[in-house]
Amino acid sequence: RELLAGAAGRLLRAALPREGAASPRARSQVRLLAPHATGLLHRSHRLGLVTAESVRIAARVARLVYEAGDWTAALALAGTAAKTAAEHLGDENPATVEARSGQGTVLFRLGRYAEAADLLRPVHQDALRTLGPHDARTLDAAYELQRVLHRLGDLGQARTLLEAVLDGRRHTLG
Question: Region 12-26: what's the mean pLDDT?
Fold first, then answer.
């Protein structure tokens, strides 16, 4: 079963467009893979075979589905990826941070700001603690959180986070 789960993950990853090279048409077609990513997570969960790679694949599919404009499907898949990752890998695993951050992005887009803030605050703290302040995933979580806080009217905290993101990007990118 472990070999089959690994093979399923590799096949699903191979069906995805290259990172950063997805055309709108390719992203739209990725929506057809969302049920397969969900199925992989459910079966892996049931069999105790969840890996960081399977969560990252599901989170990437969710992001592409989100970019294609199917926000409700993206939220369902991102939520499944985040929940599965947290249960099997722990909240501080980088794959869990990525999945939960992606879920927060979709909640923001759907206008569910309070839910997004409640999710992204601990995600950002977990990322800071485990990945450090200059890791790209920490900076992404901080950026998403500041967007939500800005919408919620917490402009001071949003500004502080945005300044930290800018400083972090300068430090990382030079």
Answer: 75
